Amino acid sequence: MPLLLDALYTGPMDGLTPPQVGPIRPPAVPMRDLLTPARFEAELVRFKAGYGYQSEQGDRRALVSLWSKWHFGALLVPYLAANLLLERDLPVGLDEMGVCLTTEGRTERLQLAHAGRPLASLDAFARFSTLIDDHLTPLIGRLAALSGASAKVFWSNAGNTFEHFLSAFEAHPMAAPGVAEEGHRLLTSRTTVNGQRNPLYQPVRYFQPECQGEEANVSATKRVRRLCCLRYLLPELGYCGNCPLSNRAAG
Q1: CA neighbor of 143 nearest in space, from 251, 74, 43, 22
Q2: Domains delineated in the chain
Q3: How far is CA 14 from the centre of its chain?
Q4: Taking the complete model, does pTM exceed 0.85, yes or no?
Q5: If the chain, 251 residues long, is cut into consecutive pieces of 10 residues, what is the mean pLDDT of each piece?
Q6: CA 152: distance to chain centroid?
């Protein structure tokens, strides 16, 4: 099965690194260990230094938010690929996986205890339940506590990455027609099956900028995050291209 996971790394995934499968041992760090205050603080110091900031520079909320964006990218590429293209549920619960970190302290690659199991259901909320319940919910709770930022910031980061790769996988050579349909349904549902607020609801919006003297050009369509990731609070980084604060015309 690891070889089958490796086979996914073509098309929009070409050049990316597949997860490792096997016992979680060094250099991989178990997710639970990574999220202890002392270990996470040490990695955040390295992450901060990678951007040239000294120990007291850079807004902590923005730094942890930026760290989470790297993490969600490394997490969601293999998870969504296996889920959408192979209909397999990867073991991404915090007690079943580890991460390989770069010298800058950010997540580079997953270490999975095994290569996943066939999905029990293809329904939107059921097929992504391991991701949401066993990884995102506890992780985001910890990141909010460790940073002082609202949990909504991290859910927005996760949803933004989720939505981006849904669209990318529709062009994957192994994709069946409608491969991302349930993923999009997840992101357009205001509530979960239990009637609770869906924290991944509508993470991005698309709008057509007003054009003067000519018809709107489809290629000019703007993709804008629903919530700001706080990146602008870091010196010299400023707003990202999808920031709602710098794209107020979306409102």
Answers
A1: 43
A2: 2-202 (1.10.510)
A3: 18
A4: yes
A5: 85 93 96 97 93 72 96 98 97 97 96 96 97 98 97 98 95 96 97 96 87 55 92 85 72 44
A6: 13
The Cβ-side half-sphere exposure at 75, using a 13 Å CA radius, reads: 28
Q: How far apart are CA 186 and CA 166, in angstroms?
A: 11
The two three-digit tokens of residue 148, written as one number: 């002082």
3-class SS letters over the chain: CHHHHHCCCCHHHCCCCCCEECCCCCCCEEHHHHCCHHHHHHHHHHHHHHCCCCCCCCCHHHHHHHHHHHHHHHHHHHHHHHHHHHCEECCCCCCCEEEEECCCCCEEEEEECCCCEECCCCCHHHHCHHHHHHHHHHHHHHHHHHHCCCHHHHHHHHHHHHHHHHHHHCCCCCCCCCCCHHHHHHHCCCECCCCCECCCCCCEEEECCCCCCCCCCHHHCEEEECCCCCHHHCCCCCCCCCCCCCCHHHC
Instruction: Tell me how far apart the alpha carbons of residues 201 and 197 are, in angstroms, rounded to a whole number.
Output: 8
Is residue 20 within 8 Å of 100, Cβ to Cβ? yes
pLDDT at residue 211 in the model:
57
φ and ψ of 141, to 5 deg? -60, -40
Determine the pLDDT at residue 251.
44
CA 63 to chain centroid: 16
Nearest 10 degrees: Cα torsion 61, 66, 70, 72: 50
